[in-house]
C-alpha cells in the first residue's frame, strides 16, 4: 500500500523546513523527508550561478523545472513503495498541474504554511544556507500566488503560532481524511474535459495559425511557442481529432510521416539548419500538453540548446516572425514538389 504524502506548501522562508522536521519528530510511523532544496543542492552552487556556471539563464530555468519534475517523481516512487512522506512545495499557477499530475492517486495532505512578507524577508536575510549567501528576493508577484490555488486540509501561520501549535494543528488534521488535493485534482480533470481542442480549431479555421502545408488528412503549421532564433519549428497534425500515437492507423501514419518528412526537407532548404529533430509526446506522462496528436519538426543549430521541453515559455512568438517563416517554408515546399 502506498504511503501518504504530507505536502507543506508555502513561500521560501515561510517556515516549512522547521515544521517538516518538527513533524518528523512526532509522527508515527516514521515519515521520510526530503525537500526540493535537497535536490537542488545535488548540483553545486557554482553550477547554479549564472555568472560562473555552465548554463545560460534560460537553460537554468529549464533545468530547475527538470529538477522539480525529478523531485516529484521521486516522491511518488517513494510513496508507491510504501514510505509515508513529508515534502515541501511552492505551488504556483505555472507548476500547479505538475504537482497535481505527479501526485495523482496518492493520499495527499495539503497544508498551507503562511507568514507575512516582512517576516519571511527578515528570516531570509538571516539565513546562511542560500546559494552564494544571496537571500531569495521575496517581494515578487509569486509571493501571493503561492496560496492562490485554493483549498487546504489545514493552514498555519508561523508568524503567529509557535512550532508546537503548528504541529498540533497539522497532526490533528492528519487524523481526518484529506480532501483538498482531491478537489484540486477533480477540478483539473473537469477543466481538461471541458476545454475545446486548440488543434481542432486550427483545422476548422476558427483559430488563427500559419499553415505551411495541407494534405488530405494532415495540416502543418508554425508552432506559436518555443521557436529557435530563426522561427522554423513546425507542427504536423492529423485533421481528425486523434488524441495520440496509439490511435494512429497505418494510412494516417503513412500520410503524417510523409508530410513531416516534406516539412523537414523544406525547413532544411529554407533555413539550412545544422540538423533537424522530430518528435511526438504522447500522454501527460510524456508532457503532451495538447491532446491532439502532433509531430514536431525542430531545426537545430550547433551550440544552441535544445528547446525547453518542460517549462512553458511565457509569451507566444511574434506573429510577423511566424508569418515570414511560413512564407519561406511554403515557397520551399512548392519548389520541392515541382
Ligand atoms: Zn483536436
TrEMBL record:
InterPro entries assigned to the protein according to its UniProt record, in alphabetical order: Histidine_triad_HIT, HIT-like, HIT-like_sf, P-loop_NTPase
Top-level taxon of the source organism: Bacteria
Positions occupied by motif Histidine triad motif: 292-296
HIT domain: residues covered: 198-307
One Pfam short name: CPT
Active site residues per record: 294
Transmembrane segments: none
GO biological process: nucleotide metabolic process
GO molecular function term, any single one: catalytic activity
Coiled coil, from the record: none
Name the record gives this protein: HIT domain-containing protein
Natural source organism: Eiseniibacteriota bacterium
Amino acid at each position: 500500500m502506498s504511503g501518504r504524502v504530507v505536502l507543506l506548501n508555502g513561500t521560501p522562508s515561510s517556515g516549512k523546513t522547521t515544521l517538516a522536521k518538527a513533524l518528523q519528530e512526532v509522527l508515527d510511523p516514521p515519515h521520510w523527508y526530503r525537500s526540493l532544496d535537497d535536490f537542488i543542492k545535488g548540483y553545486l552552487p557554482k553550477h547554479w550561478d549564472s555568472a560562473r556556471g555552465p548554463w545560460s539563464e534560460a537553460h537554468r530555468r529549464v533545468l530547475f523545472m527538470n529538477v522539480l519534475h525529478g523531485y516529484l517523481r521521486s516522491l511518488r516512487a517513494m510513496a508507491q513503495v510504501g514510505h509515508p512522506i513529508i515534502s515541501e512545495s511552492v505551488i504556483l499557477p505555472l507548476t500547479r498541474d505538475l504537482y497535481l499530475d505527479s501526485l495523482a492517486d496518492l493520499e495527499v495532505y495539503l497544508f498551507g504554511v503562511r507568514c507575512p512578507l516582512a517576516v519571511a524577508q527578515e528570516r531570509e536575510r538571516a539565513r546562511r544556507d542560500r546559494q552564494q549567501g544571496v537571500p531569495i528576493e521575496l517581494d515578487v508577484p509569486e509571493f501571493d500566488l503561492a496560496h492562490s490555488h485554493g483549498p487546504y486540509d489545514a493552514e498555519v501561520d508561523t508568524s503567529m503560532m509557535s512550532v508546537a501549535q503548528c504541529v498540533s494543528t497539522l497532526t490533528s488534521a492528519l487524523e481526518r481524511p484529506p480532501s483538498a488535493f482531491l478537489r484540486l485534482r477533480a477540478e483539473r480533470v473537469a477543466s481538461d474535459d471541458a476545454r475545446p481542442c486548440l488543434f481542432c480549431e486550427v483545422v476548422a479555421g476558427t483559430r488563427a495559425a500559419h499553415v505551411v502545408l495541407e494534405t488530405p488528412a494532415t495540416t502543418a503549421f508554425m508552432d506559436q511557442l518555443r521557436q529557435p532564433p530563426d522561427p522554423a519549428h513546425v507542427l504536423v497534425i492529423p485533421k481528425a481529432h486523434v488524441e495520440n500515437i496509439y490511435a494512429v492507423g497505418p494510412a494516417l501514419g503513412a500520410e503524417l510521416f510523409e508530410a513531416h518528412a516534406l516539412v523537414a526537407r523544406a525547413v532544411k532548404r529554407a533555413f539550412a539548419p545544422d540538423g533537424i529533430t522530430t518528435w511526438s509526446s504522447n500522454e501527460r506522462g510524456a508532457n503532451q500538453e495538447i491532446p491532439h496528436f502532433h509531430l514536431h519538426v525542430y531545426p537545430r543549430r550547433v551550440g544552441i540548446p535544445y528547446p525547453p521541453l518542460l517549462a512553458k515559455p511565457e509569451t507566444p512568438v511574434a506573429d510577423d516572425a511566424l508569418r515570414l517563416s511560413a512564407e519561406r517554408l511554403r515557397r520551399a515546399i512548392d519548389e520541392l514538389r515541382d
